[in-house]
Amino acid sequence: MQSPREILGHVWNSAGGDPAALDVVTLTGEEPQLPSSFRVAAAAQVSIAASALAAAEIWKQRSGEAQDVNVDMRHATVECRSERYLRVAGKPPPPAWDAIAGIYRTGDRRFVRLHTNFPHHRAAVCKVLDCKAEREDVQAALMQWEAEAFETAASACSICRA
Fold first, then answer.
1. Residue 121 pLDDT exceeds 80
2. For a designed S-S bond to 26, which of 49, 63, 70, 121 qualifies (C-beta 3.0 to 4.6 A apart)?
3. 26 by DSSP, 3-state: which?
4. What secondary structure letter does DSSP report for 146?
């Protein structure tokens, strides 16, 4: 299994970055940080380190000043879940996802994913399905559709472009 440093090196080199720039990067912490079958902590750490290193390189080109990049795995993981810690006036914000957004089974035993976080997307989905904006109603309506037919109908009424 590749270490986060090796993954960062691969990402950085694939993007055409100067391999010598990696010398200023310090990665700390160990996996796992979250219970997952995916390497989410490494992904968080590497993506933040790569973007920070790119910013440091731009700054170096503009100013001549070098910067070190230090990314702790735990801090990176928390940052990628920061919405769970956000408070507005001391309380959690309203849900980020619409109540009917999500994955649904269709009548042909396939699945569709509905993105209804914008009110006009939600309205368009409910119009195509001819149902109320309630999870149970959406699921019942989708059981009357084949997945591809629903996607075609949704596309025809510009849901994806709305």
1. yes
2. 70
3. strand
4. -
